[in-house]
Every structure is written in C-alpha cells, then in structure tokens.
Amino acid sequence: MMTRPTQFTYLALLAAGIFASGCSSTPGQELSASDFSKGSTATAAKTSAAADDAPAAPVQPADAGKTAPTAEPAAPVPTAAIQPDITPELKRELDQIKPPSVVAAPIATAKDAGTLTVDAMIGQVNGRPIYASQVLEPLKAQLNAMGQQMARAEFRNAAARILSERLYQIVFDSLFLAEAERRMTEQERFQLKVMMHLNRQELIRKYGAGSEPAANDELKKTTNRTLEETLEGVRQTILVRRYQDEVIYPKIAVSKRDVERFYNRPEVYEKYNPKPGRKVRLIRVANKTSAAKVDALFAEGKTFIEIAKDPVNQYNPKSEGKFMSLDKNNKDTDLHQGENLFSIDALNDALAKLKAGEHSPRIVVSNQLGDLYFWILFEEVIVGTRKSLPEVQLEIEQQIRGLQYMMIEQRYRKKLFEDAGYVVDGSTANPLDEMAASLVKIAVGLYTKGS
User: Fold this and answer.
1) For residue 243, with 0-12 CB atoms within 10 Å meaning exposed, 13-18 middle and 19 or more buried, which class applies?
2) Average pLDDT over residues 119-135
3) Which of 101, 218, 325, 358 lies deepest, with the highest CB count within 10 Å?
4) Is 234 within 8 Å of 21 (Cβ atoms)?
5) Taking the CB of residue 308, how many other CB atoms lie within 10 A of it?
6) Phi/psi at 47 (nearest 5 deg)?
7) How big, in percent rounded to 5, are the helix, strand and coil portions of the chain?
8) How do 277-285 and 370-382 pair as beta strands?
C-alpha cells in the first residue's frame, strides 16, 4: 500500500533538482515499475519544445506515458540541495506569500466575436482570463502555413480542429491544477511556499548574482521564460505530481493473471512468438529480347539484386525486385509465411526447389496475352526471436499500467469538466464551442490569403 509523503518530501525532491517544470506529456508511453512508488522521481509530464533550451536540472526524470496537463510550460529550475532552516523570521516572511486564489467559476465568452482581436479576452476559467493570443501564439507558424496553402473554407475547418484541441487543453490544465491545489493540506501548502521561496532565491543567486531584475533578464535570454514563469512551472509540476500520487497511482493495480491474459492475446502472443518467414525477390520481363538480356547479365557475373534494379526488370525495380504482399492487417510486408506465395503454380514450384541464397533459372509462364519470363531469388529465412512470458512479464506489466493510467485519467478528466459545468460530449451547448468559434474567426482574419 502506498504511503503518504512525509513532511518535506516534496521540498527535498525539489531541492535535489528532481522536479522539472511544465505540465505536458505524451500519451501512450510505457510506464516503468518505479513510476508507481509514492514520491517516485518519474515525471508527470514532459516539458514542451519551448523549454528545450532551458537550464537542465541536475536529475532529469524519466517520462512515463502520463497524460498530465499541458499548461504553459516553464523552464526547468536548477536548484542546489537546500535543506530549509525555517526560522521564525523566515516563517513570518513566508506567511506573506499568498497562494493563488482558485475559484471554479464558469467560463465567460465574448458576446461579439466580430470585434475580437488577437489581444482580446475570449473567456475565463477559474476566474483567470484566457486571451486569444494564449491559444494562437504557439500555433502561429502552423496556422500561417495552413493559411498560405488552403482555401478559406478548408482553413476554417482545419483551424477549428486544432484551436478547439488547444483551448480544451488550456481549460483542462486550469481545472486540473485547481483541483490538485484544492486537495493540498495546510502543511503541504506551507511546504510549497517554502520551496518556492528557496527556488526564487536560488534562481536570483545563480542567474542574477543576487539581483532579481538581472536574473529575470538572464532567464528570458537563456530560456525564453521570465523568473515568474519559471517558478510557476515548478509550482504546477509539484501540484500535478502530488495529484497523481494521491488520486491516480493508488488505483493502478496489475495482477499476475492480468499479465497472463494480456500475453495470450493472439496479436500479443504473435508479437513475442513470431513465425519464421521468407524474403523473396523477383525479376519479370515480358518479351524474349529482355529475357535474353537478363540471362546475359547473369552470365556477366551480375548479382540478382543488381539485375533486379536494372530498368529491364518490370517488377519493383526501385526496391530491387523485392516481393511484397499484404499481411493480415492489410499492410505491405516483404516477410512471407506459408508454402505458396504466388498465384502462379510454376513460381511456387520453382521457389520450393531453392535454398536460401539461391535463385532460379528463367521461368516461362504462358497466358492468353503471351509469355512472361521470371527469375526468383530466395533471399533468406527470417527466424523471429521467441520470448516467453517470464522474459516479457515486466514489459507487459508496464504496458498494462500505462493503459490503466490512461483510462483512469480520462475518467478524472471527464469528471473535472462536468464538476465545473462543462459538457464536452456534444449533448448540450458548451461555452468552449463559443470560445473556439471566436478563435477561428480571428485566425481566418489573420492567416488566410487576402486577409
């Protein structure tokens, strides 16, 4: 059973530089076993590309396929291993640091979208404004490229999709962070204030030699984030991870039976126990003159692959005569199972006589349209590596944990929206739709041809 973090658990982790900033993540990644220990150093989320040039933390946590918020990321904060000495003076100073007020207020949308500009406030969430630029700016390059290539109607439809997704994520981030903060105890709130104060001091020392304005300028120059944005990124990461520790991870459980059932699914079993397959190449020509040329090239010592990519070959010369077929998922493959690969018996009979590495002599196939001439190369046999259940047990457990995490997170995501009064299943009118419509109108005016 997972235990609750002891006093200053999060402070110690932050002081060790373990928490990176930002709240974004990439769904679908595999989870490691260590990700499910309370106080694990696995991140809740990857920072976005905007933080790529940020100062690296001493320890970079491993991502774990968690679908945490993707709120505006800030640069990771490199901190020293500080053990807070909470003197009465420091406590009084910290008491002056007020935590942000989070109010679950309905989103207010603009009534007259026709007057909106990129600087307009299109709505609010938790009492905080959402500006059009907040949604549009990260997508500027993509929208501009789309506007140059698409007609207005096509652009409007494409922009509606990506802007709605971005807006949805911004609102979810705010709701998620508000809920995570609401769950904090007074002691944890105080611990968070202590750590944020210490991080601020460390950033000012390292980037500004004790000067806050100098630190702010240097951070903007090196990470494209202000001091406040950097600290906000750290705060968000703490809240996200604590919420995961308290709400989501305890609900994840994988039994031995779960692993066995997963392994024995036909598609999974086949993945770990692949059947042997053959790779084959073909040369095909449609007249005696070309057939004679192929035989002459063989006589000159040319290899099968060299001849197969010659223009004389009429079967996949660009892929050097590689024989392709469709697998059971209707995808092209050059690895073939079974005895009869071809619809022509003469080709199957010729292939059956070959060993790996050998090619056939000329094969003549007659039909109503005339003769066709083939040569077959039995290139190689591929024997897949078989893996038993004990060998892949941990890997499968990680996959199941990742799937469970996504399902649980999706349920909490839906509940957060519903509790805030937002219906996102399309059954009723939604303020988010009105906000998205305003954003699309602004984007059409800004980025389409003739705007």
Assistant:
1) buried
2) 80
3) 218
4) yes
5) 25
6) -75, 150
7) 50, 10, 40
8) antiparallel
Residue-level pLDDT at 427: 58
**160: which residues sit within 8 A by CB, 6+ positions away?**
436, 437, 440
* Token couple for 163: 């802007």
pLDDT of 184 above 70: yes
Each residue's pLDDT tens digit, 275-293: 888 999 999 999 999 999 9
| 171 to 17, 256, 288: CA distances (angstroms) | 29, 38, 70
pLDDT interval class at 116 (50, 70, 90): low
- Mapping DSSP onto H, E and C, the string for 253-275 reads CCCHHHHHHHHCCHHHHHHHCCC
Nearest residue to 448 (alpha-carbon basis) of 111, 154, 105, 200:
154
Exposed, middle or buried by CB within 10 Å (0-12, 13-18, 19+), for 210? exposed
pLDDT bucket at 90, cuts 50 / 70 / 90: very low
What single-letter DSSP state applies at residue 7?
Answer: T
pLDDT digits (tens, 9 = 90+) for 342-357: 989 999 999 999 999 9
In this structure, are residues 10 and 242 in contact, taking their beta carbons and an 8 Å threshold? yes
pLDDT value, residue 112: 41
Say how far apart CA 441 and CA 439 lie, in whole Å. 5
Report how far residue 320's alpha carbon sits from residue 206's, in angstroms, rounded to the nearest whole number. Answer: 59
H/E stretch holding 187 reads helix 186-208
- Could you tell me which of 46, 38, 42, 44 has the C-alpha nearest to residue 9? 38
Instruction: Inform me whether the pLDDT recorded for 76 exceeds 50.
Output: no
pLDDT class of 424 with cuts at 50, 70, 90: low
DSSP 427: S
